[in-house]
């Protein structure tokens, strides 16, 4: 024993192994997800903004697709420069690169917060549509929806003000060799160099890191935990309301025959609700663990943040990117209207349009089938 106390780590070798195993693949996997997500969100916007798709729900999904698209487009050059490009240490910690990292942190956080705002709005709107259908047009009309979307794009940058103030670019002096790397025992030429890092600002360090602590609280509680709790409650109540509505519907129509139009409208309502529940569940899976880890970092201090949170940073990033990219697949899998509109827009001209027999009019009409 050398007399030095060995610090007990919060997260052991398993976290180190997970971190090291995924770190090398993070840059490539992030680029693939971002490229796919950018195309997917552009397709979402194109389809959802068609006149026949106009509705408050689709307006919110369009606003969500715009925010997710901007996150993807911004992450591509950042990921390329930060993860994949091989550069000397001097270039990697230049002032320009530090500025890029700082702007990336601010930009991604703002638009990710907007995505969270719109996801909450989506859950509230759907809950009202299922539980209070008679009030739906009054409370969740297109005008109210546009106000909610615009408010998200205006208020979320304000919520992130503690982040802007708590961090800035800090210079640190060091010694590097002629190639811009750390000198070794065989190095003959080296120079004093100033490297630049994104770190706590003077304002963030003041009063025992008060502003930095406020930033962590806002991030974990306001942006992560509260939305996740709200979504969990809304999702459970939405599922319960959906089951109750279905039971009442069956009780009222028992012994009577539904018209095809009413039956199809009910099925469309159920499909839409299930699709939005899938979107909300995906959000909870990716966001809730991150909020819990940040909250634990506040309580447990810097050691927990270093041992646990930072080791999972790349994994949490890729989960958030997947969450922003995968909605297109959910819409295609669960929304017949989305698939139909997508097919009308992007069906190759040489592909024949299916012919469907119209029994009511006793003649054949051309229409796009909904599968």
UniProtKB/TrEMBL annotation:
GO molecular function: G protein-coupled peptide receptor activity
PROSITE patterns the record matches: G_PROTEIN_RECEP_F1_2 (PS50262)
All copies of domain G-protein coupled receptors family 1 profile, residue ranges: 40-331
InterPro entries: 7TM_GPCR_serpentine_rcpt_Srw, GPCR_Dmsr-1, GPCR_Rhodpsn, GPCR_Rhodpsn_7TM
Main location: membrane
GO cellular component: plasma membrane
Transmembrane region(s): 27-47, 59-78, 98-125, 146-167, 216-239, 275-298, 318-334
Compartment list: Membrane
Entry keyword set: Membrane, Transmembrane, Transmembrane helix
PANTHER family registered for this protein in UniProt: MYOSUPPRESSIN RECEPTOR 1, ISOFORM B-RELATED
Family stated for the protein in its record: Belongs to the G-protein coupled receptor 1 family.
Protein name (database record): G-protein coupled receptors family 1 profile domain-containing protein
Native source species: Nezara viridula
């Amino acid at each position: 024993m050398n007399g030095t106390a060995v610090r007990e780590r919060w997260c052991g070798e398993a976290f180190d192994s997970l971190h090291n195993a995924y770190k090398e693949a993070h840059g490539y996997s992030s680029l693939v997800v971002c490229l796919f997500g950018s195309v997917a969100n552009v397709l979402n916007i194109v389809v959802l903004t068609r006149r026949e798709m106009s509705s408050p729900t689709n307006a919110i999904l369009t606003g969500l697709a715009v925010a997710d698209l901007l996150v993807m487009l911004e992450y591509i050059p950042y990921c390329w420069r930060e993860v994949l490009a091989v550069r000397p240490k001097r270039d990697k910690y230049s002032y320009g690169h530090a500025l890029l990292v700082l702007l990336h942190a601010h930009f991604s956080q703002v638009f990710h917060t907007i995505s969270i705002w719109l996801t909450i709005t989506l859950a509230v709107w759907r809950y009202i549509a299922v539980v209070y259908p008679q009030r739906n047009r009054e409370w969740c009309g297109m005008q109210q929806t546009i106000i909610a979307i615009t408010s998200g794009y205006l208020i979320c940058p304000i919520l992130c003000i503690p982040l802007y103030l708590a961090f800035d670019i800090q210079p640190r002096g060091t010694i590097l060799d002629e190639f811009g790397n750390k000198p070794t025992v065989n190095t003959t030429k080296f120079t004093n160099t100033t490297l630049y890092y994104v770190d706590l600002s003077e304002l963030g360090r003041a009063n025992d890191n008060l502003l930095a602590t406020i930033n962590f609280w806002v991030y974990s509680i306001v942006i992560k935990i509260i939305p996740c709790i709200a979504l969990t409650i809304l999702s459970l109540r939405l599922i319960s309301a959906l089951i109750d509505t279905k039971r009442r519907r069956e009780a009222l129509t028992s012994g009577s025959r539904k018209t095809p139009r009413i039956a199809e409208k009910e099925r469309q309502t159920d499909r839409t609700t299930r699709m939005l529940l899938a979107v909300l569940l995906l959000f909870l899976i990716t966001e809730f663990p991150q909020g819990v880890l940040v909250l634990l970092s506040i309580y447990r201090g810097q050691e927990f943040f270093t041992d646990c949170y930072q080791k999972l940073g790349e994994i949490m990033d890729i989960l958030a990117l997947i969450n922003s990219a995968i909605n297109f697949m959910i819409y295609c899998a669960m929304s017949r209207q989305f698939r139909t509109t997508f097919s009308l827009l992007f069906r190759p001209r040489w592909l024949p349009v299916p012919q469907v027999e119209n029994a009511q009019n006793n003649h054949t009409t051309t229409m796009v089938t909904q599968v």
